[in-house]
Automatic annotation (TrEMBL):
SUPFAM superfamilies: Ribosomal protein L25-like. Residues 99-179 form the Large ribosomal subunit protein bL25 beta domain. The keyword rRNA-binding applies. It comes from Mucilaginibacter gossypiicola. Residues 7-90 form the Large ribosomal subunit protein bL25 L25 domain. Part of the 50S ribosomal subunit; part of the 5S rRNA/L5/L18/L25 subcomplex. Contacts the 5S rRNA. Binds to the 5S rRNA independently of L5 and L18. InterPro entries: Rbsml_bL25/Gln-tRNA_synth_N, Ribosomal_bL25/Gln-tRNA_synth, Ribosomal_bL25_b-dom, Ribosomal_bL25_C, Ribosomal_bL25_long, Ribosomal_L25_dom, Ribosomal_uL5_bac-type. This is Large ribosomal subunit protein bL25. The keyword Ribonucleoprotein applies.
Length: 194
């Protein structure tokens, strides 16, 4: 999985006034959980853009006052009006503990059902997976090569080594439905035979 390096600075004061001043100066208050103690720090809002405003999931190589650690974003809070990032929670990664995160679904191939006029409907754009940090993927590839009209790929159809998908097994990821044009063509063909 891809990593992005972000450096932070420890917060000397933890409070509303300090947090407001940080945000005014283009910084975002943050907390690193998962270690022996919580670490309160701040990062540049500009550094977070590459991690937050993308469908790709990243591990983050955090450096706070010379101490390096690997983490993921656990939670983000946004301002209700401006939608600027107001706070970020990071979770420290442990190579021996599995973590659960959402991974994007990437469709591969061409569906024969779409070629004959069917409509491709992707119901799940991300899947929740649980695995050790070293086993996580950038995306889960789902082949649509065998999808005819009326067929679908469900969560239970996806088999991955060292990963557990936590979505419901009966959830549909992608399907090919009958389009209006295909339905009309079938009706015209049926009327022509009479």
């Amino acid at each position: 999985m891809k990593s992005i390096a972000i450096s932070g600075s420890p917060r000397e004061n933890v409070g509303k006034r300090d947090a407001k001043e940080l945000r005014y100066n283009g910084q975002v208050p943050a907390v690193l959980y998962g270690g022996a103690t919580q670490t309160h720090f701040y990062v540049s809002a500009a550094d977070l853009r590459a991690v937050v405003y993308t469908p790709v999931v990243h591990f983050i190589d955090l450096e706070i006052a010379g101490v390096k650690s690997q983490a993921i974003i656990q939670d983000i809070q946004f301002h209700p009006l401006t939608e600027k990032i107001t706070h970020v929670d990071f979770l420290l990664l442990d190579e021996k503990k599995p973590i659960a995160i959402e991974i994007p679904v990437k469709l591969t191939g061409t569906s024969p059902g779409v070629k004959v006029g069917g409509k491709l409907v992707q119901k799940l754009r991300k899947l929740r997976i649980k695995a050790l940090p070293k086993d996580h993927l950038d995306a889960i590839e789902v082949s649509i090569e065998s999808l005819e009209v009326g067929k679908s790929v469900k969560v239970s159809d996806i088999k991955l080594d060292n990963l557990t998908i936590t979505n419901a097994k009966e959830d549909t990821i992608v399907s090919v439905t009958t389009s209006r044009a295909l339905r009309q063509a079938e009706q015209e063909a049926a009327q022509g035979k009479k």
